């Protein structure tokens, strides 16, 4: 009887301890819920992401690395963060490529019967120019593999037209973009290997319109460089249709783009020092550069203004982070990732300890959640906070790719985290002349910044 009583007593103590822990956890969760609500209230009532974005996009505009606008954006970002009263604001020097588009590109389809049709095209970033007009017959392929299988005489002296569309069946459009991107990145190289004189690439978009989508492409030192341009999806469909009726048609392409010597630029960094663990750093950022066709609003002006807003929201909510929080406006994500690489290089050289790095580079649309790039145990630890984000529609926490600029930190940070928003409209305007301020919704943008600030608050409080 005495032994049973002891077991009962011990069992009761375990239950009481468990109940006490659960009660404490519930109380903590309630406190966090109140703090997070305060962050969202501040963002929705007094958020500044939208007005900051208005200035960046309408007063400065497109910010291709090496351009005067990119330099203006650096000084703008530094000034905005200095006015926030942060503990520290500074620049990180980085050398960046300087490619210029030149005059507006021209392309015309000419049938063997003499009829002509203009195509909406734009040079791919990094392409050489045509040195006047380039006129050649066209061979259409759906993939790099199909090109490689063609007889040499089918390709030599022609322009290769890569016409594989993005897969419309994926719910997550970024997956479709990634799969179709090989023809844009490597198309010119593979075409030149087979003796082609140029490359045309179907724009990476699920929309059917007349906007050509630029984006980075590459060359190989051992392969002849040939001009490469993107053609709008409507133009690609029309060209494909015409080729079936007239395989001997030609395309005349004219581009004046060129690569200039590298120039000096900067990452812009703003920092709030941690109150308890100042040596543990949480970085949140977006890329300050953009392509030159438009204002670079969703790509990635929104990510920059949201990242700066994270710091403002924490301060305005009366929170003093336990760990150091940095907002970084990375330079040169679009055509080199020089800023992301430099930031990681300097962090490693300084022996800094990054707890986590977060990136916003998917547009400023309705928040959905976060992608977490970490070991399974760390992913699960971040996922335990999902219920706190459910009231705001941003509770999708999944393992996955976090972002390009924070990628170089992978070996230094315990977790890389990518802010995820609704992706259905992003690739309609991505890298086009349509990426303008008027396409951004104020509430969606401010809700995204609040979601990021809320997760940064939890990371700072609890660590990983």
Automatic annotation (TrEMBL):
Q: Which InterPro entries match?
A: CPQ, Peptidase_M28
Which keywords appear in this protein's UniProt record, sorted alphabetically? Carboxypeptidase, Endoplasmic reticulum, Glycoprotein, Golgi apparatus, Hydrolase, Lysosome, Metal-binding, Metalloprotease, Protease, Secreted, Signal, Zinc, Zymogen
| GO MF term set | carboxypeptidase activity; metal ion binding; metallodipeptidase activity
Position of the signal peptide = 1-24
Q: Where in the cell is it found?
A: Endoplasmic reticulum; Golgi apparatus; Lysosome; Secreted
Q: Name one GO cellular component term.
A: extracellular region
Which organism is this entry from? Hymenobacter luteus
Identification of the protein by name: Carboxypeptidase Q
Q: Which segments constitute the Peptidase M28 domain?
A: 267-453
What domain of life?
A: Bacteria
């Amino acid at each position: 009887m005495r032994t049973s009583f002891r077991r009962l007593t011990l069992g009761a103590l375990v239950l009481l301890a468990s109940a006490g822990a659960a009660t404490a956890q519930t109380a903590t969760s309630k406190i966090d819920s109140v703090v997070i609500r305060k962050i969202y209230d501040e963002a929705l009532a007094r958020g500044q992401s939208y007005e900051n974005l208005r200035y960046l996009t309408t007063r400065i505009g497109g910010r291709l690395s090496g351009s005067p606008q990119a330099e203006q954006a650096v000084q703008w970002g530094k000034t905005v963060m200095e006015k926030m009263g942060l503990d520290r604001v500074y620049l990180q020097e980085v050398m960046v490529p300087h490619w210029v588009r030149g005059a507006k590109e021209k392309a015309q389809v000419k049938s063997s019967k003499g009829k002509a049709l203009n195509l909406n095209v734009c040079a791919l970033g990094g392409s050489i120019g045509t040195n006047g007009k380039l006129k050649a017959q066209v061979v259409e392929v759906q993939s790099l593999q199909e090109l490689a299988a063609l007889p040499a005489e089918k390709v030599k002296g022609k322009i290769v037209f890569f016409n594989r569309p993005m897969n419309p069946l994926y719910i997550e459009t970024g997956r479709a973009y990634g799969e179709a991107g090989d023809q844009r990145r490597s198309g010119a190289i593979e075409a030149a290997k087979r003796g082609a004189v140029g490359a045309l690439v179907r724009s990476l978009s699920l929309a059917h319109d007349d906007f050509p989508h630029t984006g980075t492409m590459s060359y190989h030192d051992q392969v002849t460089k040939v001009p490469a341009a993107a053609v709008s999806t409507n133009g690609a469909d029309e060209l494909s249709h015409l080729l079936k009726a007239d395989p001997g048609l030609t395309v005349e392409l004219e581009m004046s783009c060129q690569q200039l010597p590298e120039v000096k630029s900067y990452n812009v960094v703003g920092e709030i020092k941690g109150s308890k663990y100042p040596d543990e750093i949480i970085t949140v950022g977006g890329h300050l550069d953009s392509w030159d066709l438009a204002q670079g609003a969703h790509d990635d002006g929104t990510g920059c203004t949201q990242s700066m807003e994270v710091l403002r929201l924490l301060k305005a909510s009366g929170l003093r982070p336990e760990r150091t929080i940095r907002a970084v406006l990375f330079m040169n994500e679009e055509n080199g990732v020089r800023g992301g690489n430099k930031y990681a290089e300097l962090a490693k050289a300084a022996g800094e300890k990054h707890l986590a790095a977060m990136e916003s580079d998917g547009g400023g649309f309705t928040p959905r959640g976060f992608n977490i790039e970490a070991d399974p145990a760390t992913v699960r630890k971040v996922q335990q906070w999902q219920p706190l984000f459910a009231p705001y529609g941003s509770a999708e926490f999944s393992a996955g790719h976090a972002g390009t600029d924070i990628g170089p930190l992978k070996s230094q940070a315990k977790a890389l985290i990518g802010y995820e928003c609704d992706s259905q409209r992003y690739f309609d305007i991505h890298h086009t002349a349509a990426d303008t301020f008027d396409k951004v919704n104020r509430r969606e943008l401010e809700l995204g910044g609040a979601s990021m600030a809320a997760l940064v608050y939890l990371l700072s409080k609890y660590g990983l």
